[in-house]
Design brief:
Layout (H helix, E strand, L loop, with lengths): L7 E2 L2 E2 L1 E4 L5 E4 L7 E4 L2 H22 L7
Antiparallel strand pairs: 1-2, 3-4, 4-5
Length: 69
């Protein structure tokens, strides 16, 4: 799978850069602290998409309150 130049993670823009050691860094500016590394852009994108999903689910769950039945 080729990573498109304008990659997205659940509707949010992913920004790529390179670390000094050559690894790819994928960042989702709209989701604070959602940044991941990979040896390839594809690996970095997959990792940041997993983190983005977790961040979205965590935020959705933070307002949820269990009720007893």
């Amino acid at each position: 799978m080729k990573v498109p130049p304008q990659a997205k993670a659940f509707g949010h823009k992913v920004v790529f850069s390179r670390a000094r050691d050559g690894r790819w860094i994928a960042d989702v500016p709209a989701l604070p602290l959602v940044t991941a590394f990979g040896f390839t852009r594809k690996e970095a994108l997959a990792a940041v998409q997993m983190l983005a999903l977790k961040a979205i689910v965590d935020r959705m769950g933070s307002g949820w309150r269990a009720t007893s039945t």
